[in-house]
UniProtKB/TrEMBL annotation:
The lineage of its organism: Bacteria, Pseudomonadati, Bacteroidota, Sphingobacteriia, Sphingobacteriales. Residues 65-355 form the PRISE-like Rossmann-fold domain. It holds the Pfam family PRISE. Signal peptide: none annotated. It comes from Pedobacter yonginense. SUPFAM superfamilies: NAD(P)-binding Rossmann-fold domains (SSF51735). This is NAD-dependent dehydratase. InterPro entries: NAD(P)-bd_dom_sf, PRISE-like_Rossmann-fold.
């Protein structure tokens, strides 16, 4: 049977890179988002609001996907609202597809907030897990919209008989515009501003993150992991961590990134210096840079998410994840993290998103 993929959130970091990989592998690939674009050859865009079941039914009228990849979420003011809205989005898409009885597998992308807690209690004392993070770590006794999304997948799988997989990446690094969690591009934009204004490239995070071990997830690795779990019998009906497979220290990488952009790096200096404060007045600066270099995106908020970068880099513990479960089941893809960042920066320059 031909594989027909429906990628929910096809314009984001995870979704866009997944769609590109699926198309290269010969999958018939549809991308659903509220405001779809046609900038990926071979992707068949669908427009729908995941909170509006009627628009979902209309968008999916003639589609019978075999595999559904849910890579999107919506940020709200409270975790209670995150749970309501993000759980509803997953429920709606799976309810809309249920009568078709075509879905064989559903893959859901969440993340390390599964272990570290929601935004309101993220990596706080009293809730810090043992590292490396492992999939068998129990859910925290906290409200968490990732748990709500998982539960919607489990309920629909029991109802409709499809298999499932849960994927928990750590800080996805890849090219996307308008993404709510975009550390790689945020750092590239910050470094570009520092270069243009002769400002130092100041480490914004904690001592623990500066000195400790960490890892991240290349968007291409995540794409391959999603496809692997959805097409490998042994891998189905499991939750997985997914990272590059190496570890690094920001105390080295920060200087390497600074060298790439030709800026002066300043490391941890006794206290956290939030990037959100450092960049709070840079919207007009970026407009001038974009105008000077004829860049494609003049709105700083469409490229930079310093609040999320601060969340990651300000954690009071080193954070790294175990890939043992995936390795034992046969997923052995490895990616050098420094190369991940350099490849992203090259892509951003080629796309005229940074100078």
């Amino acid at each position: 049977m031909k594989n027909i993929a429906l990628v929910i959130g096809a314009s984001g970091i995870a979704g866009s890179n997944l769609a590109e990989t699926l198309i290269k592998k010969g999958w018939e690939t549809y991308g659903l988002s509220r405001n779809p674009t046609d900038n990926l050859a071979g992707l068949k865009p669908l427009a729908a609001d995941l909170l509006d079941i009627e628009t979902l039914h209309a968008a999916l009228t003639n589609l019978k996907p075999t595999h559904v990849f849910i890579t999107t979420w919506m940020r709200n003011d409270t975790e209670a609202e995150n749970i309501r809205v993000n759980g509803l989005m997953v429920r709606n898409i799976l309810q809309a597809l249920s009568p078709k009885q075509s879905v064989q597998h559903v893959a859901l992308v969440t993340g390390l907030k599964h272990y570290l807690g929601p935004f309101e209690a993220y990596a706080k004392e009293g809730f810090l897990p043992e590292t490396p993070l492992r999939e068998e770590h129990p859910r925290l006794d906290l409200e968490n919209f990732y748990y709500a999304q998982e539960d919607e997948v489990y309920a629909a799988a029991a109802r409709d008989g499809f298999t499932w997989s849960i994927h928990r990446p750590h800080t996805v690094i890849g090219k996307a515009v308008g993404n709510a969690m975009n550390m790689g591009t945020t750092l590239a934009v910050y470094a570009s501003i520092c270069k243009e204004t002769n400002r130092p490239f100041i480490w914004p995070g904690s001592s623990a993150q500066w000195n400790g071990l960490s890892d991240v997830t290349d968007s291409k690795v995540l794409a391959e992991h999603l496809i692997w779990a959805s097409t490998t019998d042994l891998a189905r009906n499991q939750a997985y961590n997914v990272v590059n497979g190496d570890v690094f220290r920001w105390s080295r990488l920060w200087y390497r990134i600074a060298d790439y952009f030709g800026v002066q790096a300043i490391g941890f200096d006794s206290k956290i210096q939030p990037l959100e404060l450092e960049m709070q007045n840079d919207a007009s600066v970026w407009e001038e840079i974009a105008q000077k270099y004829n860049l494609q995106e003049k709105a700083l908020s469409r490229l930079s998410t310093p609040w999320h970068t601060d969340l990651d880099l300000g954690r009071p513990i080193e954070v790294m994840t175990s890939m043992n479960k995936s390795r034992k089941m046969g997923f052995n893809l490895f990616q050098d993290t420094e190369d991940t960042f350099y490849a992203l920066f090259d892509q951003l320059r080629e796309a005229k998103l940074i100078p």
